[in-house]
Write a structure and sequence with these properties.
Length: 401
């Protein structure tokens, strides 16, 4: 956290500035160690900017963390000190990461450990990253931990990309279809409707339906747009509330094929994260607590939280997982074998590989199903509009004769 301070040095000179510290007590200690007499110390208010309003867009990217982790591991393994290594990486890092590393270097110069300095920047370095790194510092295997984190982040990135790609194509096709229909109904159709009315032609049922839609859209277009915007904003607001998120997540999990993809992705993320953290040496209770911070589906979160509470009461991990029907049976069985044989992290890594492959196959299956379905849908809409316009042409030609 950033703290703004005002102090006087030994010569009576006034010093002001901003420092990074995990808490106010640590900030006071750091200033006293520098020989400063503190006059004022308070949390620094972040400046409002596009960077603070949209941290995910302007912040440190996942790829930056992967490169940083691998390069830092190589430097440490080569015998270069942590502080020197950070200063070397500072020159080649992109702006967002460079700004964070400058503050991390300042924290190290004040005597903090690397994990504590990184933990002060949770938007750049997630809690899971900093906590795992702390274990690596304590065991003396920092470079190995950094490489494990890099591999973990790469697999997380690949999984997120697969899930994102699964939703991109259908959304794009539906968006194009809606745009085409709006243009046809609002722009191209009204002149044709006026032409039909001027000849008093006998119109078929599909054309009458299309004309009714066109007239309704023309007469109430502004209200429709306003209503659609209001509904969208209400849906976004309600979706951000706890009850709205639960309903949304439960609905998504019940969708055919899509729900399977989401659940497999969540299980793959859970098993991969648990494997990395257990291998790093964290106790299982803390592993479950950190995993909950990575879960973005409220239904899965609630299930894993119940598993965590059961684990704390001494019931182990496999039993509570088996009691949650949302999770596949193979997950609890493999965990049970891992608990009995002492190979839990290895079994979890195997499960992670399996469910990541399953997610990939499910995404491909979803794409293969969505493409013809969307083609038929869009083709049906365009065909209906075309038939509705072409059919009355015969009546118009007859009236002209």
């Amino acid at each position: 956290m950033n703290y703004r301070y005002e102090a006087f040095d030994k010569n009576g000179q006034r010093q002001t500035g901003i420092m990074v510290s995990p808490n106010e007590t640590a900030a006071e200690d750091a200033l006293w160690q520098q020989g400063l007499t503190i006059v004022r110390l308070s949390p620094a208010k972040p400046r409002v900017s596009l960077r603070t309003l949209f941290p995910s867009f302007f912040g440190v990217k996942r790829q930056d963390l992967i490169i940083f982790s691998r390069q830092m591991a190589t430097l440490i393994e080569s015998g270069i000190g942590i502080l020197t290594g950070l200063q070397l990486l500072l020159q080649s890092s992109r702006r967002a990461l460079r700004e964070v590393l400058i503050e991390v270097i300042q924290s190290l110069q004040q005597g903090q450990s690397l994990s504590a300095a990184l933990a002060a920047h949770p938007t750049a370095f997630p809690t899971l990253y900093a906590r795992t790194l702390a274990v690596g510092e304590r065991t003396g295997h920092l470079e190995d931990t950094l490489r494990q984190l890099a591999t973990f982040l790469e697999k997380e990135q690949a999984l997120s990309r697969k899930l994102r790609d699964a939703a991109t194509y259908p959304a794009f096709v539906l968006g194009v279809a809606v745009f085409v229909v709006v243009i046809v109904v609002a722009v191209a159709l009204p002149p044709i409707v006026d032409l039909f009315d001027s000849f008093h032609a006998d119109l078929p049922v599909p054309t009458k339906i299309l004309i009714g839609i066109s007239k309704f859209a023309s007469g109430y277009g502004s209200l429709l747009i306003f209503g659609a915007i209001v509904l969208l904003l209400v849906a976004i607001w309600y979706g951000s509330t706890p009850s709205g998120r639960r309903i949304r997540d439960r609905l998504f999990l019940r969708l055919p094929v899509i729900g399977k993809v989401i659940l497999q992705g969540q299980v793959a993320r859970f098993t991969r994260t648990a494997s990395v953290l257990i291998q790093a040496g964290l106790p299982l209770a803390e592993v479950m607590e950190l995993i909950l911070q990575t879960v973005d589906n409220t239904v899965v979160y609630a299930a894993l939280d119940r598993v965590r509470l059961a684990l704390l009461s001494g019931q182990g991990l496999s039993g509570p997982l088996a009691a949650e029907r949302i999770f596949p049976q193979m997950l609890s069985q493999m965990v049970m074998v891992g608990e009995e044989t002492g190979t839990l992290e290895a079994n979890l890594a195997t499960l992670a590989d399996f469910y990541e492959d399953e997610t990939d196959r499910s995404v491909k299956t979803l794409a293969s199903l969505m493409e013809p379905a969307l083609t038929v849908l869009v083709g049906g809409i365009v065909g209906f509009i075309a038939v509705s316009i072409v059919m009355p042409m015969y009546s118009v030609l007859s009236s002209i004769k």
